[in-house]
Write a structure and sequence with these properties.
The structure holds two protein chains of two kinds.
Chain A: H1 11-36, H2 40-46, H3 52-57, E1 59-62, E2 65-68, H4 70-85, E3 92-94, E4 98-104, E5 110-124, E6 130-146, E7 149-164, H5 182-187, E8 192-193
Parallel strand pairs in A: 1-7
Antiparallel strand pairs in A: 1-2, 2-8, 3-5, 4-5, 5-6, 6-7
Chain B: H1 6-31, H2 35-42, E1 50-53, E2 56-59, H3 61-85, H4 87-90, H5 95-98, E3 104-106, E4 109-116, E5 122-137, E6 140-157, E7 160-175
Parallel strand pairs in B: 1-7
Antiparallel strand pairs in B: 1-2, 3-5, 4-5, 5-6, 6-7
Helix pairs in contact in B: 1-2, 2-3
Chain lengths: ~240, ~240
């Protein structure tokens, strides 16, 4: 694990670090509007890493695993989604983010951020109505600086709750059926299929973890699969409340 | 970023903070039903100040300030009707004492994208707003989800940043507990609140649909344009008309 190294900064370095953090927040916020606009291809080209080395290890994670590498990410995030989207009539996908927590590496080359999103995904049923789903969860992002610009390197969108608008959340089945869960179905078959975040009972497995101050990048702090924390005992084996 | 000196970067960070605080104060004034204070506190006196909603826009100082004054008048009307409906709780209190009973309009702002012009004279900001409009209508008290966007042009005045053009448009405006993907189920009207049906906001200066509310048959609709870095306002787009 990267150790926090005590650095001292000049005034110039400090304001540039402050500005970097603002630019990182702005990048994450821009993505919100790209999603609304269905600009997924543009998102990958404008906001994500372009260096081939970073592209090879870029990842997009959700509760049921990770797509790794830009080609795999594009296959899911752009190509599959475009096929699901059709002409876009009656579709509205909105994932605003708040409660931002950003840690800029001591060396200023990478950063990590965590946000919460109370979002919704609305898709037409084809009969003049639509299925409107509340989707809430954490959005964790690793950033890397390419030249003067910050770029997205790894993302995890960890869903906590899916509920149809106007329905009783408390009446939902307790256990998630991944074969029918709309978030899992939408995610398809990732490069690395695994349960990264189990939202049963809103059980708290603390993934993705909030970023902590760090000095320089190491894969073990990544929000990509290489940084997934050592598996601990969840579910009933941990006993009631055993995750705390 | 590299084009700016340390001092300029510091000023630009302070500008961003001031703009976020300005919008935070705006949202808090709405929560507190202080619409009558909003224009004086936060708006520019530029002749083309503009306030856009989904179905129309107010343009000019008189029209924009008139809208907020109308909000204040409606708040007073709501309080009076609530006083009549709940005499045990509110009877005997003055108009001033009961002002604010009823409306609870929450406009939390998230996902800001702010660009301050390189010349520092203007700025642009886009926010997402997952709001709730809890108010009294002809059906009585009712809560609506209101999901939409604040897209704002700011201008620097002698006493700080001011709102120049503001577009507040929603995608979702749906009674809480209902789905925006289904046919809305209006609540039955109540005679004690019928007077609200007579209330009218001022006519828009420009009456047109700036953004259609979501329906299952609405074509895909982009968010308002995302602010882009710019040098001076003439080089970028306007959130006004």
């Amino acid at each position: 694990m990267s150790k926090k190294v005590k650095r001292t900064y000049t005034d110039d370095e400090l304001i540039r670090r402050v500005t970097d953090i603002e630019e990182i927040k702005k990048l994450a916020n821009k993505r919100v509007y790209y999603i609304i606009n269905e600009w997924r291809e543009q998102e990958l080209s404008d906001l994500w890493v372009s260096d081939p080395a970073y592209q090879a290890t870029a990842s997009f994670g959700r509760n049921t695993g990770y797509y790794v590498g830009m080609d795999a990410i594009r296959g899911y995030y752009v190509t599959k989604h475009a096929a699901d989207l059709g002409d876009g009539v009656g579709t509205m996908n909105v994932h605003p983010i708040s409660t931002g927590l950003v840690e800029l590496a001591g060396d200023g080359k990478t950063a990590k951020g965590l946000w919460y999103s109370i979002g919704q995904d609305t898709t037409p049923n084809g009969d003049g109505t639509a299925k409107a789903l509340w989707n809430t969860g954490k959005v964790a992002i690793d950033f890397v600086k390419e030249g003067d610009d910050w770029k997205i390197w790894h993302i995890v969108e960890a869903n906590d709750c899916t509920a149809e608008a106007g329905s009783e959340y408390s009446e939902q089945p307790v256990y998630i059926d991944y074969a029918t869960d709309p978030v899992a179905v939408e995610f398809g078959t990732p490069t690395i299929p695994m349960i990264t975040h189990d939202a049963t009972f809103n059980w708290w497995d603390n993934y993705p973890t909030p970023p902590v101050p760090y000095d320089t990048w190491s894969d073990e702090i990544s929000y990509g699969p290489e940084g997934y924390p050592e598996k601990v005992e969840y579910h009933f084996g941990a006993g009631e409340g055993g995750n705390y | 970023m590299s084009q700016f000196t340390t001092e300029q970067l510091t000023q630009r960070w302070e500008d961003q903070r001031a703009l976020k605080n300005l919008m935070g104060k705006y949202a808090n004034c709405i929560i507190l039903n202080r619409e009558q204070d909003i224009f004086d506190l936060f708006w520019s006196r530029e002749a083309d100040v503009t306030l856009i909603f989904n179905d129309g826009a107010y343009v000019g100082v008189e029209a924009v300030s008139g809208y907020y004054q109308a909000c204040y008048e409606r708040n007073k009307l709501v309080a009076r009707l609530m006083q009549e409906r709940f005499p045990e709780e509110l009877g005997g209190k003055s108009e001033e004492e009961i002002y604010g009973v009823g409306p609870f309009k929450v406009k939390p702002l998230s996902s800001p994208v702010i660009e301050v012009a390189a010349d520092g004279k203007t700025a642009k900001g886009l926010w997402y707003c997952q709001g709730a409009y809890n108010d009294v209508e002809t059906c009585g008290p009712v809560a609506n989800w209101t999901w939409g966007y604040f897209a704002v042009d700011f201008v620097r005045a002698e006493d700080g940043w001011k709102i120049w053009h503001m577009s507040y448009t929603n995608d979702v405006d749906t009674i809480c507990g209902q789905s925006w993907g289904k046919e809305p189920k209006p609540l039955p009207e109540l005679p004690e609140f019928a007077a609200l049906g007579e209330f009218r906001y001022p006519e828009y200066t420009v009456k047109q649909t700036f953004r259609a509310i979501y329906t299952p048959t609405r074509p895909h609709t982009d968010a308002p344009r995302i602010p882009e870095p710019y040098t001076t306002f003439a080089d970028t787009f306007s959130y006004g008309i």
